[in-house]
Amino acid sequence: LFCSVVVGISARVLNTTSPADPALLSPRQYQHTDPDSGTQLDCDKCPAGTHVSLHCSLTAVRECSRCPEGTFTRGENGLQKCHPCRSPCPGGFVEKATCKPTQDRVCTCPTNSFLSGAGGTECKPHSLCPPGTRVRRRGSETDDVVCKPCTKGTFSDSSSLKCRTHTICHAQGLLTSGTRETDNVCRPLSTSSAKPFTTTPLPGPAKAVLLQEPSSATPPSALSGPVHEGQRPSS
User: Which residue ranges are recorded for the region named Disordered (predicted)?
Assistant: First the structure.
């Protein structure tokens, strides 16, 4: 009983198919022709990060080996050799993903720059939207910034993600109308129309009255009083 079970499993794993009927091939299998018998076999693929080191046969399943350093395979495969990784990133680029058995090396442009040039051979900084425009679409690793003019009633006087609304002049009145690049300029407030600034004194203690002292130059007669007729001042 045990032997019959093993034979049954082997028959399913190593099932042969006709070349005229490829639809029966599983996506997790690849076809291989056995060199000894000439039979076409459906072999199981090897997992990502490995490759087929020995194909399946009528009596054995396939064998897998890990990808050597500097090579990779992304998914299940029937490859006899792994793919070589890309060369180290050139100057001006940064390594986004390292080379390892399950993935290739990925080089990209630094932050705030994008891939440009013929065949994407250089990195250029993202453009700055000029005055009068705003950012419509931010830049990415592969595309530059896309700008869009400010709509009526708005402006931008420097590189900006969005446009600002023109200032509304109320009491002052409008001196100069704004544009897509400049804001409205309002008239300055008139000094004649401004109310005088007054203050009301706060109640407080009464101020002391300053009495003037008599002058030392006052004549003596004024101090001794009037002199009566016929009377002389005593000596």
Answer: 181-235
> Could you count the other beta carbons within 10 Å of the beta carbon of residue 168?
9
pLDDT tens-digit profile, the chain (235 residues): 333 333 233 333 344 444 445 557 789 999 999 998 899 999 999 999 999 999 999 999 999 999 999 999 999 999 999 999 999 999 999 999 999 999 999 999 999 999 987 777 889 999 999 999 999 999 999 999 999 999 999 999 876 778 999 999 987 788 889 999 999 999 887 655 445 444 445 454 444 433 344 444 444 444 444 444 444 544 4
pTM given for the model: 0.55
Burial 17-39 (b: 16+ CB within 10 A, else e): eeeeeeeeeeeebbebebeeeee
Its domain, for residue 160, covers: 127-187
Query: Could you tell me if 73 and 132 lie in one domain?
Result: no
Q: The domain spanning residue 71 has which CATH number?
A: 2.10.50.10
**Structural domain count of the chain:** 2
Q: How many CB atoms lie within 10 A of CB 157?
A: 15
Do the domain assignments include residue 155?
Answer: yes
